[in-house]
Fold this sequence. Notes:
Layout: E1 3-9, H1 14-24, E2 30-37, H2 42-49, E3 54-56, H3 65-81, E4 86-89, H4 98-103, E5 108-112, H5 124-130, E6 135-142, E7 152-159, H6 166-189, E8 193-196, E9 199-202
Parallel strand pairs: 1-2, 1-4, 2-3, 4-5
Antiparallel strand pairs: 5-6, 6-7, 8-9
The structure holds 5-O-phosphono-beta-D-ribofuranosylamine (GRF).
Amino acid sequence: MGGRIAVGVSGSGSNLRALAARIDRGALDAEIVLVFADRPCAALDWATEAGIDTALIEDLGARSLDTRALADWNLAETLKALGVDAVVLAGFMRLPGPILLDAFAGRVLNVHPSLLPAFPGAHAVRDALAAGAAVTGVTVHLVDEEVDHGPIVLQEAVEVRDDDTPESLAPRVHAVEHRLLPAAVRALLEGRMLVEGRTVQIIEGESTT
Ligand code: GRF
């Protein structure tokens, strides 16, 4: 039986669609049991149209700490009740709360459009260009209580060309994200991800693609 995953989104949903496409073609033995979002977004609309259960939980971004903690607890309980094996943040623009992180310790993945620890934050592609970096890339990491910080699972570099703009660079970065995130999810679900402190080793599995 495939792994049960919940996917967190806030944006356009290209990583969510890439995950779903992998699952559909049998390259990732998983089922997306819930797509949750902190705001209305195209990713959530797509999930609804695809017939996937969705949850819009705007309180995850509430100003009140109490309200946010309750939303964190509710989401963690929902995911536990659904028997979720892994939580995949695919363009989810918030740090999950401590209750969820505790309940799913070592089972929450995030994809980020830079080679962390370079260029954390919400504008990584733009920031890499502004810094004049010759190379940027993609990181998939386990999520801890700091933004864009947890143990690095997979990274791949993307060359920055002299004439790149955010519009020309972002699609090349996203194309790598769409490959790396499903590969990391698969390794996690198959128990091939060994974590020791900040070091993550992936034991090679059978190739799919
Ligand atoms: C991705 O670049 C992801 O790394 C970042 O937000 C973007 C989301 O894109 N955290 P999408 O919603 O998956 O298209």
